[in-house]
Amino acid sequence: MVMSSNERRTRAAALATAGLFAMSAVAVTIAASAGGPLVKPAAVAQKTASAPPADATTTSVAGKNKVAVPVRHEASFWIEQIDIDGDGNVDDANLVWDDVDKVLFASKSGTFTCKNGGTGSGDMLIAVNGAANRQHQPAGSGFWIADVDKGECGARAGAVVGCLFDAQGNDTMCGLVDIDEKTGEVVIAAVK
Fold it and tell me: How far is the C-alpha of 18 from the C-alpha of 94, rounded, in Å?
């Protein structure tokens, strides 16, 4: 569904009025969805305390394909091998550090472990708030989003799914994701 910027602002305002959570980087709408990857973002959270390497380049986008999101400021980009989703497998991870907002984005394409015990494959993006972040969120908290196919990880249809997680890496609110490439906000409606 294509919405005008006014329709998106109206929708975001309505969700915010309903007591929903907003976060920079992506617009997210939640609907009932049991499927999704099992994400343990501890390795990414640990990286928020490290400076980007000297050979990092710059970018304005984190992730790719359906999980690509704009970064509000020119950010440092580098590739590193870490287990970004905590499934025990080291990934070729694309890391993007927004030093102004103090948010680290980590993305990969490949396999992941599903919450239901199965295995899925696709693009994934994890965003973790660093210390003294501009959103005033707890350090180590953030969100993850992943592109899953129908039947993968219990998904009823192919979609981008995601969750907010707390500073301990525990999912707090999950569902379907709608990315607004222009505003760069996350709006999440709790699943009842």
Answer: 35
Nearest in space to 161 (alpha carbons), one of 181, 149, 142, 146: 146
**Amino acid in position 65:** N
Supply the pTM of this predicted model.
0.81
> Which residue in this structure is represented by tokens 């959270």?
45
Distance CA 137, CA 21 (A): 11
> Measured between alpha carbons, how far is 128 from 112 in angstroms, rounded to an integer?
18
- The whole-number mean pLDDT for each consecutive block of 10 residues of the chain, a chain of 192 residues, reads 43 35 38 69 96 96 92 94 94 96 96 92 96 95 93 85 93 82 58 44
What is the CB-side half-sphere exposure of residue 87 using CA atoms within 13 A? 21
Query: Three-class SS of residue 93?
Result: strand
- DSSP code of 117? S
